[in-house]
Write a structure and sequence with these properties.
By secondary structure, the chain is of the alpha+beta class. 35% of the residues lie in helices and 22% in strands. It folds into three domains: 295 residues, Protocatechuate 4,5-dioxygenase, Chain B; 88 residues, Hypothetical protein ph0010, domain 1 (Glycoprotein, Type 4 Pilin); 72 residues, Hypothetical protein ph0010, domain 2 (Dna Ligase, domain 1, 2-Layer Sandwich), CATH 3.30.1490. It has 15 helices and 20 strands. The strands form four sheets. Strands 2, 3, 4, 7, 8, 9, 10, 11 and 12 form a nine-stranded mixed β-sheet that branches. A four-stranded antiparallel β-sheet has the order 14-13-15-20, covered by helices on one side.
């Protein structure tokens, strides 16, 4: 079934000390199979669907995820995009932030459970971490029956498949004010570490009259309008600013059921965001309307991953392979004059990062002067395929320069592999010489790579003036609330 606003039913557990309570999910047999063999087959199929839908490459080192929580036949494949990353990572502890759809008292509630039973096996609760959280009066114990909800329960078989030896820290999040959220985030951030992953459980937009949310009609444009709305919410979450995220929810009235867990997660991540900057990456997205063909009643699902910048950086061999591809493509054009994109065999099996779908730019220089630069700030193609295409395009299609002539020599190649884009609320968050930026204003856009400021010895103001010129807009657009500014980092390969 598609998730409804209040679908759960409470099952009262026995009143025992938390360490001794074993919780059997009331959702086994309804929202997911209670037969181990049947559930295993369903999860195998779910993992396979996720593999077909998304890149085979799994970015290492995730700090956190946002994961949907509908029935597995609906959101399972999207959720698996996050759990496949977790499976590779094998965390020792998973802090899961859920909520009760039927409502609960404001605050943070940790159920009195010592172990969670799944049809596949048991998942233990990290008693030490729970005790640490309970030292803060914002975190309180509650009987499982008061909060038991599919926002956490639907995650249990997926968690067991991905990280069977991990312990859980289940926290049900209800309404918090900004001070409480900051206090709770500081406490949760102290649980972070290389073997700990945070997970916020939430679906995205709930659309249709049954949800009381129908801001536009059901017609041929509904699917795209839903996608635009959902990605506006995703973009706000990528800022790591819970304020911007919640403001966007309020402005759009978007029915994101887990906005409380997500906003707390963003506050935690903002506290962890340091020199190895954290970036959000959209791992998968789908709507139930796409699955059923009926957009009169549709729930949106997104899997979001949060990774340090170092997770996106390529190793020396991978850098060398990309340069080789670009050089071979460019050499063939310069020797033959044919503008033909070469097809390349698959990348070496020991270099899987070359199949990642990262934004990338290729710049060509001759005697120190730029001769062409083109890129893609979004792509559904692998680096392995995109880089040679862009090398040829930079040589022949950059309208600012005449095409390179056959026989030209000493062409220098520079490849810039970009992190995901991060929305920023104001220019004060920009780090000159570290960040590039994308400006979107008045239907125009412009992008400058971070090395532009370094090469020209610019400060931040000079960079932003040049960025406005690149977008062909006045610098006054930075004062316009409708202007969007994103930053990114780039690994520069020569």
């Amino acid at each position: 079934m598609v998730e409804r606003p209040s679908p759960g039913r409470a099952v009262p557990p026995p009143a025992e000390p938390a360490r001794g309570i074993r919780h059997h999910s009331p959702y086994a047999g309804t929202w997911f199979p209670d037969d181990p063999a049947t559930l295993s087959r369903l999860l195998d199929e779910t993992w396979a669907r996720s593999h077909r839908r998304t890149s085979a490459y799994l970015t290492p080192g995730a700090v956190a995820f946002v994961v949907p929580h509908a029935g597995l036949v609906y959101s399972g494949a999207v959720a698996a995009a996050a759990y496949r990353h977790m499976e590779q990572q094998r965390p020792e502890r998973v802090v899961i932030l859920g909520f009760c759809h039927r409502g609960s008292l404001p605050g943070l509630w940790i159920p009195e459970v010592g172990q969670y039973e799944t049809p596949l096996g048991r998942l233990g609760v990290d008693a030490d971490c729970v005790a640490f959280l309970l030292e803060d009066p914002l975190f309180r114990r509650t009987p499982e029956s008061r909060v038991c909800d599919h926002s956490i329960e639907i995650q249990l078989p997926l968690l067991y498949r991905a990280a069977p030896s991990a312990t859980l820290v289940p926290v049900y999040v209800a309404a918090l004010d900004s001070d409480q959220r900051a206090q709770a985030a500081e406490r949760l951030a102290r649980c972070a570490g290389p073997r700990t992953v945070f997970l916020a459980s939430s679906d995205l937009t709930h659309f249709g009259s049954s949800f009381g949310y129908r801001p536009f009609p059901v017609d041929a444009r509904t699917e795209q309008r839903l996608r635009d709305l959902d990605f506006e919410i995703i973009d706000a979450a990528g800022s790591l600013s819970e304020g911007l995220f919640l403001d966007t929810i309020r402005r759009t009235s978007a029915t994101v059921c887990g906005s409380d867990p997500i906003s707390l997660l963003l506050a935690v991540l903002r506290g962890l965001d340091g020199d190895d900057e954290i970036f959000q990456n959209t791992l998968d997205y789908q709507t139930s309307g796409e699955i059923t063909g009926d957009f009169h009643h549709s729930v949106s699902y997104g899997a979001l991953g949060y990774f340090p910048w170092s997770a996106f950086r390529l190793g020396p061999e991978e850098q060398a392979q990309l340069l080789r591809l670009a050089r071979e493509t460019l050499s063939e054009y310069l020797s033959t004059g044919r503008r033909e994109r070469r097809s390349h065999a698959a990348p070496p099996a020991n270099l899987p990062a070359l199949t990642s779908q990262l934004a990338v730019f290729v710049s060509l220089h001759s005697k120190g002067q730029l001769r062409g630069c083109l890129g893609r700030n979004t792509t559904d193609e692998s680096l392995w395929r995109t880089v040679p295409d862009l090398a040829l395009a930079a040589a022949t299609e950059d309208r600012r320069f005449p095409p390179l002539s056959p026989g030209e020599e000493d062409i220098e190649i520079e490849i810039s592999v970009l992190s995901p884009m991060k929305r920023i609320e104001d220019r004060g968050a920009f780090r000159v010489n570290e960040h590039g930026a994308l400006l979107e204003a008045g239907g125009r856009h412009g992008l400058l790579l971070p090395q532009v400021a370094t090469e020209r010895n610019w400060g931040a103001e000079q960079f932003f003036e040049a960025l406005a010129r690149k977008a062909n807009v006045s610098p006054s657009v930075y004062a316009d609330p409708s202007t969007r500014l994103h930053v990114f980092r780039a690994q520069i390969i020569h």
